[in-house]
Design a protein that fits this description.
The chain is mostly helical. The chain has 1 helix and no strands. This is DUF948 domain-containing protein.
Length: 64
């Protein structure tokens, strides 16, 4: 009977560890998602600035 109780306790502890790790993975995935969104905004902003600079350079080249 002892071994059955021991196996159940180990199974419960295993599930607890897996649950804690799942929560940690979820938190890190959320953090990664926020970082990716922030990086995408920065890239978009840089692309807009580059486009404005290219248009300005094209206008300057046309006046020459």
């Amino acid at each position: 009977m002892f071994w059955a109780m021991f196996a159940v306790a180990l199974g419960f502890l295993g599930l607890l560890v897996v649950g804690v790790l799942a929560v940690r993975v979820f938190v890190e995935a959320e953090r990664l998602g926020r970082q990716v969104a922030d990086s995408a905004r920065r890239v978009d902003r840089a692309a807009e600035e580059l486009e404005r600079a290219a248009v300005s350079a094209a206008r300057s080249a046309d006046t020459l």
